[in-house]
Amino acid sequence: MLPEMYLRAKTFLFLMLSVCIPVFNEEESLERIVNEVRAQSLWHESGEREMIIGLNGCTDKSAEISYKLAREDPCIKVLELEMKGKNHALNEMVKISRAKDFENIFFLDADIILEKGVLKKLDNALKRSPPEMAIASATARPFEEKFGRFALHRRYLLEKGMASIQNYVHGRCYAMPRSEAVKVAFPKNQKIFDDAFLTCLYWGRFKVLNSALVRYRVPNYRDWLVQMARRRINIQQLYHGYPELRRPLTRWLVASRQLKMQHAGKSVREKLGGKFPAFIESISDPLIYIKMRSSMRNSNDSWPKIRSTKMKPR
Length: 314
Known about the structure:
alpha/beta; 12 helices; 8 strands
């Protein structure tokens, strides 16, 4: 049996490229992200390839668009699922993937923009890493918008969050060997985010690549409150649902807080002046708490219903 290091180092020209895209009402961006994947150099270099679109209880035209794309390209598979959340979709897509255990599976969100060569950079990072390195993650950054939404984020939210960029698996785009993806079993609790779960499960065993960039659209303030509420619920559910992950979860939160204090604390105040960041936090925290209570009462509220981050068709 060939050593795993040899299998990772050999040329993957005739091996399977498997890309999984979970989708919930992404009619505006689905065709664009599919075309961006097909434009990636790794897609053309792979001897065999597949793209699995996991429709997660979509109520818009996502299914119609997916089947149209599948008719045009036999490499595209469509998997229709009940509305059970992103984690369920990820588990089901891994099951039908044709990738072998030592081959990598790529997981992408539909509402992102892929920079050139992202998939190949993630693939190379895993090939050249020691066997214990389980995940390679792209770096997610917002694309610039002309008006207030990006200005607010750049001046406060982005500056505060950029520090933790290296110690977090970015759920918008990452890759892992199929052998690891099969073992993971993403949580049935849909209030636990896949990226937070993987960050804790593989603490110290993932790599975030600054050179592999994906772009996303910044939420408006109302949707940002919803996101923050869901993140806090996610941490609570992860802490109570997975006692074995409490230590890496605590390390991750402590490290993130320290980095944010060092990186963002001074720069934000220099850019905005004085007590403005503290003022924003003082009015945001009660609103986030209200959103948390509302979300916890609705047990079916598992997939963020946020419109402001949706990509407009180009």
